[in-house]
Specification:
By secondary structure, this protein is α+β, with helices and mostly antiparallel strands. It has one domain: Cytochrome p450. The chain is 48% helix and 11% strand. The strands form four sheets. The chain has a six-stranded mixed beta sheet with strand order 1-3-4-10-7-5, with helices on one face. A three-stranded antiparallel beta sheet has the order 2-12-13. A three-stranded antiparallel beta sheet has the order 6-14-11. Helix 3 crosses helix 9 and helix 8 packs across helix 10. The longest helix is centred in the middle third of the chain and has 27 residues. The protein is globular, with a radius of gyration of 21 Å. The structure holds protoporphyrin IX containing FE (HEM). Protoporphyrin IX containing FE binds next to helix 10, helix 11 and helix 15.
Length: 390
């Protein structure tokens, strides 16, 4: 019998590290507890979370395919996943990523430079949330005429995927998915006729090189990238900034030495946990951490708790710039985030641009930041509001 615990997920908190700290404390007594809000047993210790992430035959990602994403890479296992992953690795190669980096830096500057003229701002919605879509539109060569429509489609779909049982958001989400797919499919066909030197061209070339090109396969991949790389990047960026604001000594070090940005991003991934955890579908009766799990049930591999496991991260509550990035925030094993190189480029460019624009960046003492990890279906969550003085 798995013990039950009061959910730490349903509550808002005023520190980005609260969730991980509280869940790891629970993990010191029980390796697995049932969480009513997440509606699944939470696996709390680093060793068990890592083992389950690696064993995709037993702990499967197939459930992601129950919505509109049945052909998406994240929902596939074994050889089908492996083949598609090989295609993706081509357009996220080091050479391709270096090209994307050149395009991303000016977008970051454009997005964050206007903050220099403000004195107070809520960073997440007013600034960070617009950035990843801008990056995708530019990298994919999507015309300006799309305006805010792309953002609206992606948000409607993500809202639906996050709450698949909520009929009030399903119709809008399904319609947005159909519209985004139709728009992307036209774009793919145009790009194939009239090739440009952008990321969409790289994607098409990669599918062709692996003999896997079809309009549908490229469209599904592009839509998956838009869905997989949007809220995630917003939350990773928000987690990085909030971690530094809560740890002013680290912020001062990063401001004085820009080469510490990467270390700050990695430690923020651990400390503030934008990837709170990952669901898995249990494929066979199995024992994990001495607990019996039944075939067909779901588990939540709680990365936030694993990130505060003292066995792996001594002095886990302390934000440190010298831990050398061993976090699980991009996942682990076969489904390790394929977009990680682009994500790192995006967040590092954004952090540099933000700190350049706002050398006096600090929390607004008259307004509360808000953190909330309760969006059930999402991979990424955390910072709801980050009011700052610039
Ligand atoms: C910026 C922050 C990002 C974070 C924190 C993040 C996190 C993750 C995580 C945790 C997984 C594993 C999911 C699982 O095992 O269930 C994953 C997979 C994936 N991510 Fe990311 N991601 C980010 C950015 C991106 C970007 C920018 C893209 C696309 C351009 C992307 C595309 C994907 C795809 C396609 C997968 C599935 C990989 C596979 O199944 O082999 N992600 N991501």
């Amino acid at each position: 019998m798995i013990p039950a615990a009061e959910s730490a997920f349903a509550q808002r908190s005023s520190s980005p590290a609260a969730l991980g700290r509280n869940l790891a404390a629970l993990g010191q007594h029980e390796p697995i507890v049932f969480d009513e809000f997440m509606n699944a047993p939470l696996v709390l210790r680093h060793r068990d979370v890592s083992a389950a992430l690696r064993d995709t035959a037993t702990f499967s990602t197939r459930f992601y395919g129950m919505g509109p994403m049945s052909a998406a890479m994240i929902a596939l296992d074994g050889p089908a996943h492996h083949g598609l992953r090989r295609v993706h690795n081509r357009f996220f190669s080091a050479a391709a990523s270096a090209k994307y980096a050149q395009a991303v830096v000016p977008i970051a500057r454009r997005t964050f430079a206007p903050l220099a003229a403000k004195t107070e701002v809520e960073l997440v919605e007013e600034s960070i949330a617009r950035y990843p879509m801008e990056v995708f539109l530019t990298l994919l060569g999507i015309p300006d005429e799309l305006g805010d429509q792309g953002l609206a489609w992606v948000r409607a779909i993500i809202t639906w995927l996050g709450s698949p049982m909520d009929e009030s958001v399903a119709a809008a989400g399904q319609q947005a998915y159909a519209q985004l797919s139709a728009y992307t499919s036209t774009l793919v066909q145009q790009e194939r006729r009239d090739r440009g030197d952008n990321m969409l061209g790289e994607i098409i070339r990669a599918f062709e090189a692996e003999d896997a090109y079809s309009v549908e396969s490229v469209t599904t991949a592009v839509v998956s990238l838009l869905l997989g790389g949007f809220e995630t990047t917003i939350q990773m960026m928000s987690a990085t900034v909030s971690s530094l604001l809560f740890n002013p000594d680290a912020l001062a070090r990063v401001q004085a030495d820009g080469s510490l940005a990467e270390a700050a991003i990695d430690e923020a991934f651990r400390w503030a946990n934008p990837t709170a955890g990952l669901y898995r579908l249990v494929m066979r009766d199995v024992e994990l951490a001495g607990t019996a799990l039944a075939a067909g049930s779901m588990v939540y591999l709680c990365i936030a708790a694993a990130h505060f496991d003292e066995q792996v991260y001594p002095d886990a509550g302390t934000f440190r710039l010298d831990r050398r990035g061993t976090h699980l925030g991009f996942g682990l094993g076969p489904h390790y985030c394929v977009g990680a190189p682009l994500a790192r480029i995006e967040v590092a460019a954004a952090l540099t641009a933000l700190l350049d624009a706002c050398p006096g960046l600090r929390l607004d003492p008259d307004a509360q930041p808000r953190f909330h990890y309760g969006a059930r279906g999402f991979v990424q969550h955390g910072t709801e509001a980050l009011p700052v003085l610039t």
